[in-house]
Amino acid sequence: MAARPRPASDEAREALREAMARLASGDQAALEEIYRATRVKLFGITLRILGDRKEAEDALQDVYVNLWQRADRYDPTRASPIAWLAAFARNRAIDRLRTGKVRGGAVPVEEAAPIADETPLADMLMVDAEQAAQIHKCLGALDARTQGHIRAAFFDGQTYAQLAEAADVPLGTMKSWIRRGLQRLRACLEASEAV
């Protein structure tokens, strides 16, 4: 029995874990990888706590400067890289509040701790982007007519009846075209996941 491929989220998490290990051993390129994978989430955390875009950017810069100096402190057995970095960003933002470096608009320090971070994890954002790219690639492999009908139905919100009327075909024909197109789309997506 063939082993199932690992989900892309596991691969993204592992890539981030490996980049953290490389950074701890002094690999400068790893810091850029970590930055690209985590900047959106970490900026969201600092912005939510500090309430000011410039202050949040400054706090985020502190996070990556400190990460460069302290990457060896990360312990993969205790937390995922993104959870560790999120706590790090939260702490840097709260430190800025405590030391009075922040102008008005920030939340009080005692309110910063319970602020929930509802943004998707960085690895999930990467997975979503990969999946969207694969869907569009597989859609592009369909014939122009089928591709157009699927895009109109699922991205533009047109009904099968509207599409059938516009194409001057019976409703059943339009449904069959789209159903067959979706079957080919599914097969393409499944084949790409198996690779």
List strands and helices in order, with pairings.
Layout: H1 8-24, H2 28-50, H3 53-70, H4 81-98, H5 109-112, H6 122-140, H7 144-154, H8 160-167, H9 171-194
Helix pairs in contact: 1-2, 1-6, 2-3, 2-4, 3-4, 6-9, 7-9, 8-9
Brief account:
The chain is mainly alpha-helical. The chain has 9 helices and no strands.
Protein model, in words:
- The structure is a single chain.
- With 195 residues, this protein is an all-alpha fold.
- It contains nine helices and no strands.
- Helix 6 packs across helix 9 and helix 7 packs across helix 9.
- The longest helix is centred in the C-terminal third of the chain and has 24 residues, at 171-194.
- It is elongated, with a radius of gyration of 23 Å.
- The relative contact order is 0.11.
- Residues 1-6 have low confidence and may be disordered.
- Please give the count of helices: 9
Helix content: over 70%
Largest sheet: none
Low-confidence stretches: 1-6
What is the tally of beta strands?
0
Compute the gyration radius: what is it? 23 Å
For the terminal residues, how far apart are their CA atoms? 16 Å
Helix/strand-derived category reads: mainly alpha
Q: So what's the overall shape?
A: elongated
